[in-house]
Design a protein that fits this description.
The complex is a heterodimer. Chain A is mainly α. Chain A has 7 helices and 2 strands; from the N terminus they run ββααααααα. Chain A has a two-stranded antiparallel ribbon with strand order 1-2. The chains are: A mainly alpha, B alpha/beta.
Chain lengths: 239, 587
């Protein structure tokens, strides 16, 4: 038997060798979704953080992956810019997360249960941390502290030794460390890993696509130039 | 009010691996087949193009191709006394969404289960005595045997173009393969993948430790391949973007690369995307499915009548749909009655990271590029002295060395600061991880039901998962971790870091997307939801595919067995059910 609902269908002009039969609406929707799902780097960068918030983030990421004798750190790699763009985008808005109540704190094994999106968590945590720092260190902001004192504050956050007014310190700190590593080691199209500094530090050549000839050259260092998904030039794009 | 649509012969709920195979097989039989997929349509080009897919942040870290908890999630608790809370973002497991399902973003690790895995309760009782099985462990036989499934494993392997080295052909052990595997009728369709540096290192060390290493069976093509449907696949380039990504090179087996080209253009096949099935409707006898209800992307509700309804969604979603549709008796762990939701299981994993002097180039990889040891899987060794049930494999996989999620640092390295940076720099090219991949038995208190509080975006009660690791699994996993440590020691590494799985099951860190059970198969309707042909005991024109039918989970990745069971069920439907619709097994 043949489904008469096929009257409402059209044969999609498929881009593949196979010709797919998909409802018109689905085709229209898919096209719309495909645009909506374009990679973040294909859109004009948006920003979220205020200048002082960005100052905190840049100072903190500079301690998480410091600039030292091994080379540039997270700040020089553009990780502050990376985090700002991420918070302004779908990740910052928790767009794919289930964010309906009721809200209840559970066991550690049950995972994140805060009502705050990542962007909201950053804003609340930075305000709390700056208030704590100004109270303890003579009205200085976090960015104005010396490196040793900054490290002390970060250790306190990590160990949850400081009671922030609105958010759990360790939840924010772990997110900040994760986001810093992401920015340092993600493709440079996202604003971090500028000039491939993260990948050069560790020896990851980027998405090179084909290693059939090299995979069994055991012990040999791979020395082709570093590449981005957007090609070699993407590394110099400024956020 | 739902708009009632014209009837079709077969409606498939979901459009991943199992639905794609069934759609091909049942349209071959001349049936009008409709697949309802909750996600979007996706294909190799443009969705997985190599010019955009090799993006770790977008796909692996920000979950580009997976289901979105915003639309569909579940609640979770470790035990009956706790209050379950929603999984607000993905963690422990990552089901797919969209055409191809999780078959798009899997690694391609394609195993057969052992003959004894399918007769587990009988086998254990016979070898060690019935008392060897703990009281609360609810393991059971599958109702099918390895011999039943062997031709269907073969078919799935020749659909996918599996690269590998057979270890047992017709009872004869083959040099270089897994000597412990069940007998197969013939070798794999393609030779094993080239080994990476990590595989060579593992192979040598495992032999020194007295084990029997072999190349893992891979749904990544070692050579160009034309499959059983005439679809052409290309040779894998070891680009390292399999798991969490779609393959842009037609080299990883997926519904897109093995079935779509011969299916999608057929006049007797139709796919509707962004259509979420919310109910299977039955007649007044409750013994016959009449239609499914679904909601499209615009929020409109439709009723789709069909002669045959087959649930092909991801494991727990099939169970959710049965519970919402009130088909079969829901499982009650307190009264120990009912079946729907019973025997949820998972996988228990651990690892031993090794740090060596040699450059390993971890970025040259493929999802199923690995060297494994199977000496400690299933019941391949004497469990008497250990007192636990189950086992697993050890493997050194090189899936791609993508740097955000696959950098290893030695034990004791801080998670941030100058020492962390130095450890990154010194170890990325010179480290690897030996994984252990262990079975999880089923238990009276590990199950799925409907949540009393939280509702999904369609206003239906969410699925609730109650699950924890039991002492049996921890002891088994610790044993596997110790064997992986034996291999690490034989590597004479600079250092190694054993990471056993400790404590309660957590939904936070990624472990595996090998969720099983809840609609299990078997010979007895009092302890199973579907019979040995995956047909509902209660509603004979309803079948359930996928790992939701596993009575407990074995020590292997599930997809090979999911594929074999799909072909097994397809054959029963074509050769028997269509000739005389009704129960294929009398209850």
């Amino acid at each position: 038997m043949k489904s008469p609902s096929r009257r409402n269908l059209l044969k999609a002009v498929a881009l593949t060798p196979a010709v797919a039969v998909i409802p018109l609406e689905a085709v229209v929707r898919s096209a719309r979704e495909a645009r909506a799902a374009a990679p973040a780097y294909a859109q004009p960068p948006e920003v979220y953080l205020t200048a002082s918030e960005l100052g905190f983030v840049e100072a903190a990421v500079a301690r998480i992956i410091p600039n030292d004798e091994l080379g540039p750190g997270a700040k020089e790699a553009g990780v502050g810019t990376f985090i700002d763009h991420q918070l302004a985008g779908p990740y910052g808005r928790a767009e794919r997360w289930y964010m309906q109540g009721p809200w209840k704190q559970g066991e550690h094994e049950q995972g994140y249960q805060l009502k705050l999106t990542p962007a909201e968590l950053y804003r609340a945590a930075i305000a709390d941390i700056e208030q704590y720092v100004r109270g303890k260190y003579g009205n200085k902001s976090f960015a104005e502290l010396d490196a040793k004192t900054q490290d002390d504050v970060l250790h306190e956050l990590e160990k949850n030794d400081v009671q922030l007014a609105h958010v759990p310190a360790d939840t924010f700190f772990n997110m900040l460390v994760d986001n810093t590593v992401e920015g340092f080691l993600a493709d440079p199209v996202y604003g971090g890993n500028r000039d491939f500094v993260g990948w050069k530090l560790i020896g990851f050549p980027g998405p090179r696509y084909n290693y059939v000839a090299e995979i069994d050259q055991y012990g040999k260092r791979y020395d082709m130039p570093y590449v981005s998904i957007a090609g070699r030039d993407a590394a110099v794009r400024k956020g | 009010m739902a708009q009632r649509l014209p009837a079709v012969d077969v409606v498939l709920v979901g459009f991943g691996w199992t639905a794609s195979i069934l759609a091909k097989e049942l349209t071959d039989a001349g049936l009008q087949v409709l697949a309802l997929e909750r996600g979007i349509f996706r294909d190799t080009i443009p969705d997985f193009s190599p010019t955009s897919i090799q993006d770790e942040l977008r796909y692996a870290v920000r979950n580009g191709l997976f289901e979105e908890p915003e639309r569909e999630t579940l609640t979770f608790r470790n035990s009956l006394e706790q209050t379950a809370l929603p999984m607000r973002h993905l963690g422990s497991f990552r089901p797919g969404s969209g055409a191809g399902g999780a078959g798009v973003h899997w690694n391609g690790q394609t195993w057969r289960f052992l003959p004894s895995d399918f007769e587990l309760r009988s086998h254990i009782a016979q070898r060690y005595g019935a008392k060897f099985i703990p009281q609360d462990m609810t393991i059971q036989d599958w109702g099918v045997t390895y011999a039943d499934l062997e031709p269907h494993y073969d078919r799935f392997e020749y659909l996918c173009g599996i690269s590998g080295q057979a270890g047992n052909v017709g009872g004869k052990v083959q040099e270089g393969g897994n000597p412990f595997e069940g007998a197969r009728r013939r070798g794999y369709p393609l030779p094993p993948l080239k080994r990476g540096a990590g595989q060579v290192l593992f192979d040598k060390a495992a032999r020194e430790a007295g084990f029997h290493p072999f190349p893992c069976p891979a749904a990544n093509t070692s050579e160009p391949y034309q499959n059983i449907y005439g679809v052409q696949m290309g040779q894998c380039t070891f680009c390292g973007y399999c798991e969490w990504f779609g393959c842009g090179n037609y080299s990883k087996a997926s519904p897109q690369t093995t079935v779509f080209p011969v299916l999608l253009g057929r006049d007797n096949f139709e796919l509707r995307t962004r259509c979420e099935v919310t109910r299977v409707n039955t007649d007044s006898s409750r013994k016959r499915a009449t239609s499914v209800t679904y909601v499209d992307a615009a929020g409109r509700e439709f009723e789709q009548p069909a002669e045959l309804v087959i649930l092909c969604a991801f494991a727990q979603h099939n169970v959710h749909l049965l519970l919402l549709s009130k088909i079969g008796q829901p499982y009650d762990p307190v009264a120990n009655k009912g079946v729907v939701g019973r025997n949820y299981a998972y996988q228990i994993t651990s690892s031993v990271d090794v740090f060596v002097d040699q450059i390993l180039n971890p970025f040259m990889g493929a999802g199923a590029l690995g060297q494994a040891v199977d000496d400690f899987n299933g019941d391949l060794f004497d469990h008497g002295p250990h007192g636990f049930v189950g086992g697993g494999y050890l493997a050194l996989w090189t899936t791609g060395g993508r740097p955000i999620l696959q950098h290893h640092v030695p034990e004791g390295t801080p998670t941030w600061g100058g020492k962390f940076k130095r450890a990154l720099a010194e170890n990325y090219l010179r480290s690897a991880s030996i994984a252990t991949h262990g079975s999880v038995m089923s238990y009276r208190d590990a199950y799925l039901d409907l949540d009393p509080t939280y509702r999904d975006s369609y206003g239906n009660p969410m699925l609730r998962l109650t699950f924890d690791f039991h002492d049996n699994e921890h002891r088994m996993s610790d044993f596997l971790t110790a064997r992986a440590t034996d291999v690490a020691k034989a590597m004479r590494a600079r250092s190694f870091h054993a990471k056993p799985r400790k404590g309660r099951y957590s939904i936070v860190p990624y472990q595996t997307t090998h969720n099983t059970g809840g609609a299990v198969m078997g010979d007895d309707p009092r302890t199973s939801v579907v019979n040995r042909y995956l047909q509902s005991w209660d509603v004979s024109n309803l079948f359930v595919m996928g790992s939701s039918v596993f009575p407990q989970n074995a020590g292997y990745n599930p997809t090979g067995t999911v594929g074999a069971l799909t072909y097994w069920a397809a054959e029963a439907i074509k050769s028997r059910y269509l000739k005389q619709p009704g129960p294929l097994v009398s209850a």
